[in-house]
Design brief:
6 strands, alpha+beta
Length: about 375
């Protein structure tokens, strides 16, 4: 039993070490999960700030695109206005060219008519007017040409500005699309990080629940270990007490065997004396010279192989074991006691219990207490 208790204690110690290792591992996993959760939260905050910055940039680009579109529409209006002015100037130029042609035709006709009429004074004044009108028309034509050149230059500049603005719009649209793709990617990353964070939280909750269960199991095992230790100490005390009782019983049995061997030797001497008396070979004086011994009544009957004591022998209870419910009496095989015999226990000539022999040695017997009217004690008489 002591070896079994040692095995149980060793097993419980091993289980407690395993549970301690598992508890430490769960604690380390819990701390790692907390660090991962903090890192994920920081990454989510950084991504949110990046998303906010990208949204601001996107709004700024949208406003720039709107302003560029307004500028482009303004340039288009100016271009259309310049084109109308150019058309009107071209029409005026054509009209002036027609007028010049008409005046030249008219001047030529007038010259021919003047040559026919031959009036020199009038022709000089007329030609002076014609030259002056030609000079005015030439100046107007030069002005119109200058205006047309400036309009063309402005138109070319507007065309260049329009192409530059269109290029800027295309770049802004491309940047806007890149920003949208970046925002979608950041959103996906944020969603995946959020899902991972949720999984980490669930795993953390499971780890905490497992740690709590392990802690409760550890507490229960510690209680069981404490109970087993107390039971072990109780068993060791009982074992020590049983060994002490065993040693004391062995000492008592040795004393009883010595005492009974002395009594048996005295009984054998008395038998020899009785035999001598029956044969008439001894005198009463010699018998009186011997030491007298008080013995229970002995009935001598002729038996095959020797003599037997009477069935009404008296004995006494030497010891009692209440835990195992047996008693030891001072009658053994030498007194004719065998396994299965029964004794009655008396106190003050009153029957108080019944015994049954379960083991018999030469001088003492171990008896099972079958029935008790009154609890037996050491010194009670048995028959």
């Amino acid at each position: 039993m002591d070896q079994k208790a040692k095995f149980i204690i060793i097993g419980l110690i091993g289980i407690s070490l395993i549970l301690g290792f598992l508890y430490m591992q769960t604690q380390s996993s819990k701390q790692l999960a907390e660090r991962k959760s903090q890192n994920l939260e920081q990454e989510i905050s950084v991504l949110n700030s990046k998303i906010t910055d990208l949204e601001g940039t996107l709004r700024g680009n949208d406003s720039k695109i709107g302003s560029l579109n307004s500028q482009l529409s303004e340039v288009s209006r100016e271009k259309s206005e310049l084109e109308r002015q150019y058309e009107s100037v071209a029409k005026e130029r054509d009209a002036l060219l027609e007028q010049i042609k008409e005046r030249r035709e008219e001047a030529r006709r007038q010259e021919e008519e003047s040559q026919e009429t031959a009036v020199p004074a009038t022709s000089d004044a007329y030609w002076a007017q014609i030259v002056q009108a030609k000079i005015d028309l030439q100046m107007q034509l030069d002005n119109i040409r200058n205006d047309l050149k400036s309009v063309q230059i402005n138109n070319e500049e507007l065309q260049r500005e329009k192409s530059a603005l269109e290029l800027d719009v295309k770049n802004l649209k491309r940047d806007n699309e890149d920003l949208k793709r970046q925002m979608e990617y950041n959103k996906k990353v944020t969603d995946s990080v959020s899902q991972e964070l949720v999984r980490e939280k669930n795993d953390k909750a499971k780890i905490q629940e497992s740690a709590k269960t392990t802690k409760n199991e550890n507490i229960m095992l510690a209680r069981q270990l404490k109970t087993l230790n107390s039971r072990k100490s109780d068993l060791e005390k009982k074992l020590k007490k049983v060994e002490e009782d065993k040693s004391s019983l062995e000492n008592k049995l040795r004393d009883l065997e010595g005492m009974l061997s002395g009594r048996i030797s005295q009984v054998s001497e008395l038998k020899d004396q009785l035999g001598a008396i029956q044969e008439g070979t001894a005198s009463f004086a010699a018998a009186e010279g011997k030491e007298s011994v008080e013995l229970p009544p002995i009935v001598v009957r002729p038996q095959e192989g020797g003599y037997e004591q009477d069935a009404s022998l008296f004995g006494k209870i030497l010891s009692i074991d209440r835990n195992n419910n047996f008693a030891v009496v001072d009658l053994g095989a030498d007194a004719g006691v065998g396994v299965g015999d029964t004794f009655e226990v008396y106190r003050n000539n009153e029957k108080i219990a019944s015994l049954e022999v379960i083991k018999a040695s030469r001088s003492v017997s171990a008896c099972d207490i079958k029935k008790e009217i009154t609890p037996v004690s050491i010194g009670d008489t048995v028959k």
